[in-house]
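Dear all,

This email documents one entry for the complex benchmark we are building for the journal club exercise. For each entry we list the sequence lines for every component of the assembly. Then comes the predicted three-dimensional structure of the complex as a token string, followed by one or two observations. Please use this as the template for your own entries, and keep the labels exactly as they appear.
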Amino acid sequence: MTIITFTLILLAGAYLAGLVGSLTGLGGGVVVIPLLTLVFHVDIRYAIGAALLASIANSSGAASAYIKEGITNIRLGMFLEIATTVGAVCGAIIAVYTPTNTIAILFGVILLFSAAMTLRKKNMAALTEGSKLSYKLKLNSSYPTKDGEVEYKLKNVGAGFSIMTLAGVLSGLLGIGSGALKVLAMDSAMHIPFKVSTTTSNFMIGVTAAASAVVYLQRGYMDPGIAFPVMLGVLGGAFTGSKLLTRMDPKVLKYIFCVAITFVAVEMIFNGYNHKF
Amino acid sequence: MKKIFSSFTADQDIEKLIGYLLRYGVITASLIVFIGGIIYLHQYQHSSIPAYHTFVGEQAGFTTISQIFSGVGTFNAKGIIQLGVLVLIATPILRIFFSLIGFILEKDRLYILITFVVLSVMMFSIFGGLKV
């Protein structure tokens, strides 16, 4: 295959990855890794490098819009970033000692979990009474809805912080934003309204991914020939996705993608098990 | 947070600034990568793809800031793409700096400390020699 054909096919694939990632809320990085490894037979380390870049681009692009709307809880994001960045650095260190096949299997498992998470019931209710720590850390806030500003409080700060550390480790190890785990920590453990947890998670992904990306850049995981089509393709796809989201309800699409992603996850696990990475 | 911010216009400006920073950081990075990509395609379009199924790592070059900048200086396509990658990675790191300034303006000691910890972790990741 010549470089021009490879670049064009990868550009189209990355565009689709960005589109799917933004419609399902999984993020482009999650689709980029199976695309590169299963379709193009690229070493999983290059795929992880490219996926990290896709995650940063996606997160920064979308976060700028949400901050403007005042939904993102910046204090909460900052506080939890201690957990995710420390986790991400640990993940990048562990990665050196982890066989690529194990990484592939782990990726498949996380993919299955993420697909399941997109289908679960969302937390809409806002707590009126928070835990002591939530007051001390000034994490309680309000966010705009169509019925005006809604105040919310949160609890289980310690549990949320722990899950965030795990999310950071997985992000550093696998190169994904691990948005599903981040939302789990904020939604299920800390009881934050869904809209706040998704946007705050998205806000944090850029910093989390950057913490391990600086290590991977120095290790040579970021190949220019792959980074170029992946970055531009995913950004384009995510942009189209965000435009489409305002005009349609992607509920049916979500189910289709979840089934597709389950197949991909199983293939990653199967190939990893058979030492094909 | 909106409510707290509305009483201090300076902080609201910081929040707006963070929004702009993230947006223009991504746009700048994409433009640089696009320019580098066009040159890359122009130079290599008919060569066959490198053996991406084997990991080369550091030896491929352009893994340090000095290598990337000397690559950009000689108009090397791969060097220019990596500069865009560098700008993209730097964007969220710069965002932490801006948050720090915001909390300093707000005189929020707790969050100045928290932001400083995150920044330190980031600096450790960059300069801690973790690449092995």
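Observations: Chain A touches chain B through 70 residues (CB under 8 Å). Strands of chain A lie at 141-145, 148-152.
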